[in-house]
Amino acid sequence: MAVGGHFMEKLKQKWNAQEDEKWGPNIERKERRDMIGVGRTKQYANALEKSLGKGKQEVSLNAFAFLFSELVQYNQTRVDNIAELERRLEDAGYGVGLRVLELLCHREKGNRRETRLLGILSFVHSTVWKSLFGKVADSLEKGTEHEDEYMISERELLVNRFISVPKDMGNFNCGAFVAGIVKGVLDGAGFPAVVSAHFVPVEGQPRPRTTILIKFSEEVLQREARLG
Amino acid sequence: MIICVAVVGLQNNPLYIQSFTDGDDALKLHYIVHCSLDVIDERVNNPKKIGSTLNETYLGLLYPSENYKVYGYLTNTKVKFILVTTDEDLKDADVRSFFRQFHAAYVDAVSNPFHVPGKRITSRAFAERVSTIVRSFGTSTTI
To answer: What is a biological process (GO) this protein takes part in (chain B) (predicted)?
Structure first.
């Protein structure tokens, strides 16, 4: 994915600042290493030398909303049609999905790898959603028409909360970003799939709810049948 | 005494290999790591019905050769960690905790937005962390 200079610069600065914060500039690293052998209870001279705590597991919603709106606007000026825009958002989410999978598998106690379809789906539906959006997804359903289709629905996707799509953009859904995240998680775990986001109108509510449609590829179904 | 650690990716491509003793030939270590990949594949694809579950990440002692022992660990994304040590009795708990710390360092390295998944890990911070973990291996018994 070719991302322009401005966006990369900001990301690079943020990453460097984080690395510096973690390890300190080069001069201090040696002293920090010398302190490791001191003993289990470390006494620090001042608050600055305490190791960073786990921190709050949350990021402010405003910050994310601004960043996401900037991401959408940035891509909007560089594409010619809606499909291309959806694909770009999906690609952006794909990288997030891969990394989220690594992180969550490591943090989850139990040391288990998911090899079954239902296992990985319920992992996405609860664990991934909980860590990304703070709650589990609203529902997980199996498609009735085809064997390989599953749907995760959400009344109001977090990323869509502050976005209203103009009429001339038709069916475009910024949930394509979340679809990309799910695709990244499934691909990383070894379940290649085509994932897309759709609006599904619901009676009695002004805003339609969003459905993430997951269509697994042939080999996944064959493997699942083989495992019995 | 740890001789070398290696991270091998999805398609069995090496992502990170680091040796910690001066004496040994790098090529020989590459060869040992490569052979152990076969053992991992066979363990994963033909699970023994009795005992270990199919889904464990820690694979344990892969094979003892004449002066080395090789331990393996498989993550959820099919990334394999290989640990080559000298031939001495190591407690299982020690090796498990080593892999846990190593996994933490690996996750941090991959979370880097500039890391392309599937390419070699070039982060200096990762290399430093791995050296720290290796150095404290075996000396600390309590976590």
So the answer is: endoplasmic reticulum to Golgi vesicle-mediated transport
Taking CB atoms and an 8 Å cutoff, what residues of chain A touch B77?
98, 101-102, 105, 188-190
Backbone φ and ψ for A193, nearest 5 degrees, come out as -155, 160
Judged by a CB distance cut-off of 8 A, whether residue A11 touches chain B is yes
Chain B residues near residue A40 by CB distance under 8 angstroms: 142
Q: Do A111 and B106 touch (CB under 8 A)?
A: no
Tell me: the pLDDT tens digits for A160-191?
Answer: 777 777 777 777 777 888 889 989 988 888 88
Q: Which region among A145-154, A215-224, B59-68 has the lowest average model confidence (pLDDT)?
A: B59-68
The dotted CATH code for B2-141 is 3.30.450.70
Question: Is A24 in the B-facing interface, judged by CB distances under 8 Å?
Answer: no
Minimal Cα–Cα distance from B28 to chain A, Å? 30
Instruction: At A85, give phi and psi (nearest 5°).
Output: -65, -45
Cα dihedral across residues A120, A122, A125, A126: positive or negative: negative
- Going by C-beta distance under 8 Å and a sequence separation of 6 or more, which residues neighbour residue A57? A131
The answer to whether the complex's ipTM is over 0.85 is no
* Chain A hits for B110, Cβ within 8 Å: 98-99, 102
- Residue ranges covered by each domain of chain B: 2-141
Ranges for all domains in chain A classified under CATH 3.30.1380.20: 81-227
Q: For residue A212, list its beta bridge partners.
A: A152, A197
Cβ-Cβ contacts under 8 Å, B104 against chain A = 106
What's phi and psi for A71, nearest 5 deg?
-60, -45
CATH of A81-227, one of 3.30.1380.20, 3.30.565.10, 1.10.10.10, 3.50.30.30: 3.30.1380.20
For residue B16, list its beta bridge partners: B7
What is the tens place of the pLDDT at every residue in B6-18?
888 888 788 888 8
